[in-house]
Task: structure prediction
Amino acid sequence: MVGRGAVNQEIYDSLLLLQHRGQDSTGIATAETNGVFHVHKERGQVREAFRTRDMRALLGNLGLGHVRYATKGTASSEEEAQPFYVNAPYGIVLVHNGNLTNTRELTDELFHKDRRHLNTSSDTELLVNVLANELQASISGVELEPDQIFQAVSRVHERVEGSYAAIALIAGHGLLAFRDPYGIRPLILGTRKNDDGSYEWVVTSESLVLENGEFEVVRDVDPGEAVFVDLDGHLHTRQCAADPKLVPCSFEYVYLARPDSVMNGISVYEARLRMGERLADTIAKYTPKGAIDVVMPIPDSSRPAAMQVARKLGIEYREGFYKNRYVGRTFIMPGQAARKKSVRQKLNAMSSEFKGKNVLLIDDSIVRGTTSKQIIQMARDAGAKSVTFASAAPPVRFPHVYGINMPSRHELVAHGRTIPEIAEELGADYMVYQEVEDLKAAILEGSDVEDLDMSCFDGRYVTGTVTEEYLAWVEGSQES
Result:
């Protein structure tokens, strides 16, 4: 964020809005015009991490913030919290959403060729060091020009593989944001005009941040594009990738993003409604007539799809589970033990809604199956006569390597199992999944986007650089 006055409070407020994107750790960095950085980062959620004294110390009219959802490195390690800082050239502090897939090669290059030291296993630390190295190589005079910054980003794109939406502060110069050449992870640009005619700028993962801060949505940052805002508030942009192509992550629309966001011109809420429309047809096809008395969502992200399923099938929609909103999202909790413990803390089944009924439960997706199995058992314990379980997403059969934490195939309940076998494993009477093509059509309908990364459903990795050897290495490193 580049503001007219102090930006610490607005960044804090924005992180609260984005808390659903990660709860492992959080951090804010601000910069004064003289180039002095102020950084505070902690484990845990935003409200726990920043006290009044921390906020007072975050001086400056430029800043960035991050909520971390561990995909690389150690989930509980404070050293892995973002942002990351390097002191040369100029001083750079950076946050990153995504997952780099050539970390082994980059680590070796940075140590042996670039002579740069890494202190953690975080791919964000890798990214800030690659950027710093390429920026150092681009500097030709005393002043740092936007052209030199864009040259550096171009070389970052050449060296780095995987998904990344990154925002960086360059001490004494301004704010830089850039997106990977496939636009896998989201990034959107907004502006706000001041009374004196000057402009403030913000770049963020989700549009709801802009709306909440009364910023005007300018547009999504294009795949491969870099955006630089100098200290005077002037915007500079350039396409820095040789062959960019927009292929955003489908899982943003299925689960990760808030429903009131618009990403790549696609309303997340409307996409979820369309998922329900198409899922209803599949449910009607694969379940016996009269096998369902009532439709219930697993709160909260499956609610739009469940409402549409009930409407289209002409079956009563009911809310059978009460959610405790003060417990974190189970999917992004590290470790099976934490997930198992948290489900019953998070959800309570109301017996009056289940007793003697044939229940259809709708969830947004099924990954490991740990939560789903417990929810199905909770429905039975509450008196359900039968339980049909449906997923608004297709079976997750492959690892997701672009920033969603599902690394090991053997952890995925759908890997190597047929749908009837999954139903047996989870304890459901009937099991229905969204078809792959239906999910794709539901998300893309009415938009200009032509393709999606659906690698966890179809095994097609859009960057073209993910090999079987890499997947085996990721699985091995997660288990060790």
In short: The mean pLDDT is 92. The longest strand covers residues 92-100.
